[in-house]
Amino acid sequence: MDYVVIHPWSFGIGFFGCFMAGYAAARWLYRRAIDRPSELHPEISNAEIEAELRAGHYIEAIRLHRRRDGSDLVQARAAVDAMAQRLGVRR
Predict the structure, then answer these.
(1) What is this structure's pTM?
(2) What is the pLDDT of residues 43-88, one digit of tens each?
(3) How far is residue 74 from each of residues 19, 26, 36, 63, 71, measured CA to CA in Å?
(4) What pLDDT sits at residue 23?
(5) Which pLDDT score, from 0 to 100, does residue 40 have?
(6) Torsion of CA 22, 25, 31, 32, to 10 degrees
């Protein structure tokens, strides 16, 4: 009895296509862990975020905002940009 082996490369998918399919599957499975912080910290105040901005730690200010509100990166950056503009702090 002969067996027919169907290999992904026989369909023209190639290594890159298989890699991207695996990456997409893993990203879908672990999406919530990657996109959202595990727990929120409402005790972080605006004063702490403003202190980080005044010290020149722009990325840390964004991290604090995300931990406090659970917002995504785009929303947190926009909020911190607005806060920096209001304070007159340059990046």
Answers:
(1) 0.59
(2) 999 999 999 999 999 999 999 999 999 888 999 999 999 999 999 9
(3) 28, 23, 13, 12, 8
(4) 85
(5) 85
(6) -130
Q: In 3D, which of 48, 53, 46, 42 has the Cα closest to residue 87?
A: 53
Tokens (6 digits) for 3: 């067996």
Q: Which residue reads 């169907």 in tokens?
A: 6
* Cβ–Cβ under 8 Å, residues 42 and 35: no
Spell out the residues 6+ positions from residue 40 whose beta carbon is closer than 8 angstroms to its own.
67, 68, 69, 70
Q: Are 49 and 43 in contact (CB under 8 A)?
A: no
> Is the CB of residue 67 less than 8 Å from the CB of residue 49?
no
Residue 90: count of CB within 10 angstroms of its CB = 9
End-to-end CA distance of the chain: 70
CA distance 48 to 61: 8
